[in-house]
Amino acid sequence: MEIEGEGDESPQMVITTEEDEEVVLYWHNGARSKPIRDLATGYQDGNAEDKATLDYYRYCIKAIARLLHYITVYYITVHYITVHYITVYYITVYNSS
């Protein structure tokens, strides 16, 4: 906690928090783990195991992204067809009398 204020200004309390959190990747059912920063550094340094680990997880993330894209396209298509069909059905049935 700090108190700031200059000259005739009324002092103001400023609360600052500093947290250093680390993201750790676990694999082999938690038997292996390594911080993401260390994996990235190992990848840049040419560590074959770190490169293989990051390449594998990059592949998984891309596969999940593609799957979510296809699900979204499918949902939008079904939603459009449903709304269009209901509208056409409503106009045909209820306006034909």
In short:
The chain has 97 residues and is of the alpha+beta class. The chain is 60% helix and 14% strand. The chain is built from two helices and four strands, in the order E-E-E-E-H-H.
How would you describe this protein?
The chain has one domain (2-95). The protein is 60% helix and 14% strand. It contains two helices and four strands, in the order E-E-E-E-H-H. Strands 1-2 form a two-stranded antiparallel ribbon. A two-stranded antiparallel ribbon has the order 3-4. Helix 1 (36-45) crosses helix 2.
Strand proportion, as a percent range, falls in: 5-15%
Termini separation comes to 75 Å
Order of helices and strands: EEEEHH
Structural class by SSE content: alpha+beta
Count of discrete structural domains: 1
- Overall 3D form: flat
Per DSSP, the total helix count is 2
Alpha-carbon Rg, integer: 28 Å
Uncertain residue ranges: none
Reported for the largest beta sheet, the result is: 2 strands, antiparallel
Give, in spatial order, the strands making up the sheet with the most strands. 1-2
Helix fraction bin:
55-70%
The tally of beta strands, per DSSP, is 4
Mean pLDDT: 81
Quick tags:
alpha+beta, two-stranded antiparallel ribbon
Helix and strand layout, with pairings?
Layout: E1 2-4, E2 12-14, E3 24-27, E4 32-35, H1 36-45, H2 48-95
